[in-house]
Amino acid sequence: MAIAGAIIGAAVGGWMNDRYGRRTAILIADFLFLIGAVIMASAPSAPLLIVGRIFVGLGVGMASMTSPLYISEASPAKIRGALVSTNGFLITGGQFLSYLINLAFTKAPGTWRWMLGVAGLPPIVQFILMFGLPESPRWLFRKGREEEAKAILRKIYPVDEVEQEILDLKESVEAEIREEGSSEKINIIKLLQTKTVRRGLTAGVGLQVFQQFVGINTVMYYSPTIVQLAGFASNRTALLLSLVTAGLNAFGSIVSIYFIDRTGRKKLLIISLLGLVISLGVLSGVFHETTSHSPVVSSVETSHFSNYTCPDYSSAANSATWDCMKCLKASSPHCGFCASPTNKLLPGACLISNDTVKKQCHDESRLWYTRGCPSKYGWLALIGLALYIIFFSEEIEKMLEVRALHWRFWEKSDEPKEKSQEV
User: Fold this and answer.
1) Angle (CA) 230 235 239, round 5°
2) pLDDT in tens, 33-82
3) Where is the Major facilitator superfamily (MFS) profile domain (predicted)?
4) Among 64, 112, 180, 265, which residue is least crowded by beta carbons within 10 Å?
């Protein structure tokens, strides 16, 4: 639902940017995100929690398309690329910080309410600070507020450069307005028949689509769950290990920034995709091994907790064939696996899943599993997850690759350069 909200937020954000300005759009995105965080933290039920997620998604979608636009239009040309790339790096850095905050709240009363509610602080800070920043000079020029735009440009650029920047911006905006007011209609079919346009469009759109199809959102949202599925029982341990993967995401962004101009976009992209295939293969293999070779359920161990035996296990005709995975799949009610105190890979107990049973299991120095089962290959899953994050971390640079690939196709195309440039 957060992603669905982000789709709507990005679509509405485009219109809002043109109508009310970049700064106003960011302020509205902050407000939506704050409302979403408050709703989530105070949600008495799952439906209201989902409503909060939608509000957060609206804010994320609007901010995701507005922030790079605002940065590119309100920053000096010399550092514009660096600032846009820094924005992407800070996204991955923010993910790392969020896992760190979650780790701090694992022992706090209310746990997840604090984790979700604290997300309301950054939009408050940004909302206040945005009043100290100027509107986009380009948007002001388009709205006929030239004097305001010139005043902002004089603050951004040195005295010897500002007049030329004002002239360039004015000419660019006037050219845009003339194109918009032209009576000549764009022939979409004719454009798509142009090799340059078609190749650039295919590369740009395809890159963004497949970037999502490899499952990055699932990994970033559910990495603690993935860690638990790999055989790590503790919520705190899962969050701590997820913190490492989020840190690797930020580290990978720095590494890719360094290599992108040295190895080339295409080569880096191919290496990244091959790495993703390998790391996902490792994860698949580990999960298959975990589910097909999980510890068996022992009737002796289970009878040790006689008052809390899983009902499905008690009534099963062939309970001797039960293992940890079958125990976790029990549905009436949900059950958990209490591992052997000697070795987590030895036969354990299949019990009703609740806080009382969990505490009793822990009191006997046993591990309590409700999502994944004990496995000796869990560390391989962590390696696979870490490699996946590192290889994917060209997210910032892939945005730049869209432009770079388009111009490569233009340079290699059969179209005259003047015609391609015009298109």
Assistant:
1) 80
2) 999 999 999 999 999 999 999 999 999 999 988 998 898 888 887 777 77
3) 1-423
4) 180
Three-state DSSP class for residue 147: helix
Least Cα distance to 68 among 411, 402, 405 occurs for: 402
* Residue 242 CB contacts under 8 Å (≥ 6 apart), including other chains: 99, 223, 224, 227
DSSP character string of 298-340: PHHHHHTTGGGB-HHHHH-TTGGG-BHHHHHT-BTTBEEEE--
DSSP string, 154-220: HHHS-HHHHHHHHHHHHHHHHHHHHHHT--PPP-HHHHHTSHHHHHHHHHHHHHHHHHHHT-HHHHH
Element (H, E) at 369: strand 368-369
Residue carrying structure tokens 């209201």: 48
User: What end-to-end distance do the CA atoms of the chain give, in Å?
Assistant: 38
pLDDT for position 181:
63
CB 223 within 8 A of CB 363: no
Are 31 and 68 in contact by the 8 Å Cβ rule? The answer is: no
What is the number of other CB atoms lying within 10 angstroms of the CB of residue 230? 25
* Paired tokens of 152: 């902002």
Residue 341 · residue 364 · CB < 8 Å: yes
State whether residue 296 is helix, strand or coil.
strand
Which three-class secondary structure state does DSSP give residue 134? coil
Q: What are 45's two structure tokens?
A: 């039920």
22 close to 136: Cβ distance less than 8 angstroms: yes
**Phi and psi at residue 349, to the nearest 5°:** -110, 145
What number of other Cβ atoms are within 10 A of residue 18's Cβ?
13
Q: Do 340 and 350 form a contact (C-beta atoms < 8 A)?
A: no
**Amino acid identity for residue 20 in this structure:** Y
Strand partners, 334: 331
Instruction: Compute CA distances 93 → 69, 99, 414, whole Å.
Output: 20, 10, 43
Can you give the pLDDT at residue 261?
Answer: 60
Give the domains, in start order, of the chain with CATH numbers.
1-133 (1.20.1250.20), 294-369 (no CATH)
Q: CA-to-CA distance for 119 and 41, rounded, in angstroms?
A: 9
Length, in residues, of the chain: 423
> C-alpha distances in angstroms, 91 versus 68, 226, 283?
12, 21, 25
User: Model-level pTM greater than 0.85?
Assistant: no
DSSP 345-357: TS-BEEEE-SHHH
